[in-house]
Amino acid sequence: DIVMTQSPDSLAVSLGERATINCKSSQSILYSSTNRNYLAWYQQKPGQPPNLLIYWASARESGVPDRFSGSGSGTDFTLTISSLQAEDVAVYYCQQYYTTPLTFGQGTRLEIK
Amino acid sequence: QVHLVQSGAEVKKPGASVKVSCKASGYIFSNHGLTWVRQAPGQGLEWMGWISAYNGNTKFPQKLQGRVTMTTDTSTSTAYMELNSLRFDDTAVYYCARGKGYSYEDFLDYWGQGTLVTVSS
């Protein structure tokens, strides 16, 4: 199974500042024939299901604010929130869909400093 | 708009079975796969498997093989997940989620509201 490891486990950032969450896969999730990284990012607020933010490592889902961006390739990926808003308080998960079993990172809890 | 509406909370005894439904609307049901994900209290997300709404093909993780069944009813655009031989550590919120495309190797663009399954003696 591909293990997804996020860092840090929790993060406190001031309003308006940048938040960065990292995700590392135990093997490459770049599919060479398509040159696509099979990685997604989700946001989960308390009592709600996860919400898709980013797919193909850097493509923003429709309706997601442009302060959210994804980057990286191969085994190392980053989710960046350029200017933290109060409504961004949540747990963030990365997920690989390169192969089954699909696996998620353990989650990163983002709070306001 | 796309909606996935799941059945209500369940309380089951160890060894029993539970069947959770997920009714889809707002899109062509057979054009997307459906994935089930569970989340134990205070924990992360665990992939439980996938079913094609097109032909009923399924894919499960090895740890759940033989205990989980997934089916669809295309006449009502409803997916079902049944988990047998329930254990205390099956207590979790169970989510259905739509895959963007046909494949089991997919990201999940719409999610149901979740169904809490509690296993208690």
Describe what this molecule looks like in 3D.
The complex is a heterodimer of chains A (about 110) and B (about 120). Chain A is built from no helices and 13 strands. Chain A is an all-beta fold. The model of chain A has no long low-confidence stretch (mean pLDDT about 95). Chain B has about 120 residues and is mainly beta. Chain B is built from no helices and 11 strands. In chain B, strands 2, 4, 5, 6, 9, 10 and 11 form a 7-stranded mixed beta sheet that branches. In chain B, strands 1-3-8-7 form a 4-stranded antiparallel beta sheet, with no helix packed on it. In chain B, strand 9 and strand 10 form a beta hairpin. Chain B is globular, with a radius of gyration of 13 Å.
Q: What composes the largest sheet of chain B?
A: 7 strands, mixed
Poorly predicted runs of 5 or more residues of chain B = none
The amount of helix of chain B comes to: under 10%
Question: What is the count of helical runs of chain B?
Answer: 0
SSE blueprint:
The complex is a heterodimer of chains A (113) and B (121).
Chain A: E1 4-7, E2 10-13, E3 19-25, E4 30-31, E5 36-37, E6 39-44, E7 51-55, E8 59-60, E9 68-73, E10 76-81, E11 90-96, E12 103-104, E13 108-112
Parallel strand pairs in A: 2-13
Antiparallel strand pairs in A: 1-3, 3-10, 4-5, 6-7, 6-11, 7-8, 9-10, 11-12, 11-13
Chain B: E1 3-6, E2 10-12, E3 18-25, E4 33-39, E5 46-52, E6 58-59, E7 68-73, E8 78-83, E9 92-99, E10 108-111, E11 115-119
Features:
heterodimer; A: 113 residues; mainly beta; seven-stranded mixed sheet; four-stranded antiparallel sheet; globular; B: 121 residues; 50% strand
In short:
The complex is a heterodimer of chains A (113) and B (121). Chain A is 0% helix and 51% strand.
